[in-house]
Amino acid sequence: MKLFRKAAAFFAAAVFFTILIPFQTQTAKADHYIASAPYSLEKGVLTLENGEKWYKVNEFENGNDYIITVKGSDDSEVMLTAANDSISEYIWHYYRSTMVTSIAPEYTTLSSRSFYLISHENQLYAVSNWWTDGDSFWEYRDGSLRYNGNGITSYLKYDENGDVPFSCTNDLSEAAEVSLYSNGEYLSRAIAVQPSAESYVIEGSGYAAPTFSVKLHSDDITVDSIKWFTDGKVQSCAQLSFTADSLKNMKAGVHRVNCIIEGHDGQNVHYRERSADAAFIIAKGVMPDSFMTFSDVHEQYFFITEAIEKIMNHTNGYVPALVICTGDLVNGPTASKDIMLDRYYPQIVSYLGGLDAVFVSGNHDSGEAASIMSDNAGLGAENQRSPYGGQIYKGTSAAAALNGKSSHFAKGLTVYGLNFEASLDKINGAFYYSYDRTIEKLDSFLKKTAEDYHGELVVISAHSGLHVLGVQPESVSPYGRQISKWIGENQYNVDHSYELAKLINSYAEKYNMDIVYLFGHDHSRQESELLMTEGDTLISTIDYNNRTYDSQPLKFTYAHSGYLSTTIGCANAHFSFIYRNGDSYSFDLMSTYDDTLRHTDIKAKNTFKEPVVTTVSSAPTTVATKTTVAGTSAKKASDSPATGDSFSITGIAIPAVILMILSRKRKKI
Known about the structure:
Layout: H1 2-28, E1 32-36, E2 40-42, E3 45-47, E4 53-57, E5 65-71, E6 77-83, E7 88-89, E8 91-96, E9 108-111, E10 118-120, E11 123-125, E12 136-141, E13 144-149, E14 152-158, E15 166-169, E16 178-182, E17 191-193, E18 201-202, E19 211-213, E20 215-216, E21 222-230, E22 233-234, E23 241-243, E24 253-264, E25 270-274, E26 278-283, E27 285-294, H2 302-315, E28 318-325, H3 337-352, E29 357-359, H4 367-377, E30 389-394, H5 398-403, E31 413-418, E32 424-427, E33 430-433, H6 438-451, E34 457-462, H7 489-492, H8 497-510, E35 514-519, E36 531-532, E37 537-543, E38 548-553, E39 557-560, E40 574-581, E41 584-591, E42 597-603, H9 656-664
Parallel strand pairs: 18-26, 27-28, 28-29, 31-34, 34-35, 35-39
Antiparallel strand pairs: 1-6, 2-3, 3-4, 4-16, 5-6, 5-8, 5-16, 6-7, 8-9, 10-11, 12-13, 13-14, 14-15, 17-20, 19-23, 21-22, 21-24, 24-25, 24-26, 27-40, 30-31, 32-33, 36-39, 37-38, 40-41, 41-42
Pfam family, one: Metallophos
Signal peptide: 1-27
Protein name: 3',5'-cyclic AMP phosphodiesterase CpdA
């Protein structure tokens, strides 16, 4: 019995030490938040004890580090600091999840080396935990630090006399007055309008030196420093506007101009921003009825310029007449219209180098923003700025004649933009994807186009495809393996795809129309870029939930545009260059990394005949002074794409020398 009692006592002691001692240790070292003072703080510059300087900013930027301060009753600022008995940390790294699906919840974190800043039921925690399956993100706005969890907003609260100085509140009037400080390469954004070339120019035309300008977000910003760079070399100009004299009289090629701005404002906010790299394109001419197209660039906009440069190398200096972007311009959960237009669109314009472009939205983009971007180009858009899309380019339109630059030589093209929202709906809180609302709108466009058809190439630019992933035999990975059947679920296998393909087939056959359907989207499902032409069998979804599909022989061309990024799935910086080549259309899938390409000649059904017009409009004068079209001789200044050239491209063939150059450079991709 004594032995049993000793064993029981030993067991009880073991339980006690196993449970209580760790609890006491944890209690002694419990993570908590304290207020700590900086070494000094003056005019928006916070100095730490080690002499390191941090600068007041007005927003979070993904990947940057921050010090968060709150103002006390005496107007002094103290730092939000996480601590335990061993350490204290006040530098917070901001992370925003971007490599996610478009319908994923918004998710950000603020973390130090040892702690996570977490809010739950208005209490602050210092360990990572996921209390919500919805939105969970921090943001800094109007002088307050805000946390949004499942749609409920709370604000950082500071009680300088309380035992727990930091907590959260749902009452904005109780929110602490918060400031952010950073010491990264990027501070606050200063640039509202990015530098961009007004137009491409023609080699040997005597063009004027190009001028690049930036516009600041506010007149309250005082510029402390501005440096301009041309092809990486610093220039002597220190103004908001810069004339690049060194780019005069250059041979055909692409140059890059950018600036770095530093400044401050009346609230002691500091600014440091590097502009987009504005492309300046010096071309030998324009390839008639040609266009560059790509999808899924996902904020890697420098690839746009590299793709244009690759085409120029491929054609001995000629540029495409039009650029068509088929969606997913940004990352993360679907961006709002305002963010798309204010933050991303100006950057994209910079990288285009003055070439005309139209846009379609992907699942990460605002459809309304994409329609506005196309409408802003003024090239014959008839989409009423609808989130669903519509006609975004017509080469023979009065608007294209008035506003077009490079697209003056794409009169044989008409483009319909099928925004991703056209297939997206929400039923009982769940997302649902179907083309049922699209069929009538596309039918109306095709009917109108058929009634006034002159042999132009009709491009239907979309983000989602029409085939069943993994069921379509051509649906393979870059390694040639069949991908999983129906992978990507309904978003990638859209209901009524069969009916939409059947509609396009009917117009291509009945009216003998040249039609190409271009799309992207599938890189995240590891699907390699496919190309199918007339006579190939397309297998399309009827109803995803029931896994029903049907097949039909194609009467049009069906292809990926090319995934022009490298961050997600099988995307590998590809794009397509499509151009009229005698009695065919050539379709080149190209890479920015090397000279490999997949070349396909597609027999054209028609020869474009430009309709007779009774009036000719003149485009406003820009920087170019002479234009050469592939297959023509140099034209005088009044015939420049920048000065309202009314030159007809009917019947122009690409010269033999260009075809020879193209054929020599073809390697399999």
